[in-house]
Design a protein that fits this description.
Helix content: 25-40%
Shape: elongated
Structural class: alpha/beta
Number of helices: 11
Order of helices and strands: HHHHEHEHEHEHEHHEEH
Largest sheet: 3 strands, parallel
Number of strands: 7
Length: 282
């Protein structure tokens, strides 16, 4: 009888809300009311981030039958506990060789655990070995060998005789103050040609300084065209730490590293020499 009364009251609440065009109450307020029963029926599947779940949903244990959390290497364990508490079962997906956001490892949080770290210790594992994002096997070959024990199975869709990776050695480059202007000029020249095409373009530099140096080697018209493509999601222009999950047709990578002004090559590769450096390379 109590549930029946709650369903009647919940239906009235939703009917009044459906007729509104503004001044809606917060989602948490609605879910704390009798309307929660109907919302669970009308919307049985929720797409959200664990942080948003914690902000919007009342803390009710086992509200969901199952939580599927993807990209778990990008989530702190502490940020995920609310979603886990609200779920009867948990499926965690992620790549242990993927770099966690650099913000996790700022001063004072160097020992921070991601959700994937904790799940690897406490949950049974099922490796996902099929790699489908690289249209040419050569693109994933290095990572497959050095990070995934050659266990990845690829789905190539381009002819193998076609070359997928092109290395452009810039012999006269000088690496100074985390940038290499000679290399930036060479990359900017290649980028100018690609900007004329409709294919999606990606530019990645190993430091923000090098990224800015590349940008400075474009004229105002080219900078405007690049920004227009970025706004239309036809290009991205990012430092290494920001680029995870992006896809494109043509990717230009600027390593930047080289001899200094004294002609010496120092083995200083910025974050590559630090914790998670291998994952950055991957």
């Amino acid at each position: 009888k109590t549930l029946k009364n709650e369903l009647i009251i919940g239906k009235r609440i939703l009917s009044r809300l459906f007729s509104r065009k503004r001044n809606f109450p917060a989602l948490r307020t609605i879910l704390e009311s009798e309307a929660s029963h109907w919302i669970s029926l009308l919307k049985p599947i929720w797409l959200s981030s664990p942080v948003q779940i914690a902000m919007d949903l009342p803390l009710i244990k086992n509200r969901f039958d199952v939580a599927i959390i993807d990209e778990a290497s990008q989530l702190l364990l502490s940020h995920s506990l609310g979603a886990i508490y609200r779920s009867k079962q948990l499926i965690v997906a992620g790549d242990s060789m993927q770099m966690a956001p650099s913000a996790f490892f700022q001063r004072g949080t160097s020992n921070a655990l991601t959700l994937l770290d904790q799940a690897a210790f406490n949950l049974p594992q099922s490796p996902l070995k099929f790699h489908y994002r690289s249209q040419h096997e050569e693109l994933i070959q290095f990572s497959n060998r050095h990070f995934y024990n050659n266990e990845l199975k690829t789905w190539p869709s381009l002819q193998r005789q076609k070359q997928a990776i092109f290395q452009h050695f810039i012999p006269n480059g000088i690496y100074h103050e985390r940038q290499n202007d000679t290399e930036a000029k060479a990359l900017a020249a290649a980028l100018k040609k690609l900007l004329q095409h409709e294919d999606k373009i990606g530019v990645v530099a190993f430091s923000l300084q090098q990224l800015q140096c590349i940008y400075n080697n474009l004229n105002h018209k080219e900078q405007a065209l690049l920004e227009e493509k970025i706004n239309q999601r036809q290009a991205f222009f990012l430092a290494l730490e920001q680029v995870q999950g992006e896809e494109c047709d043509h990717l230009l990578i600027s390593f930047g590293f080289g001899k200094n002004q004294s002609g010496e090559f120092n083995l200083r590769f910025g974050p590559m020499n630090q914790s998670q450096g291998g994952k950055r390379l991957n």
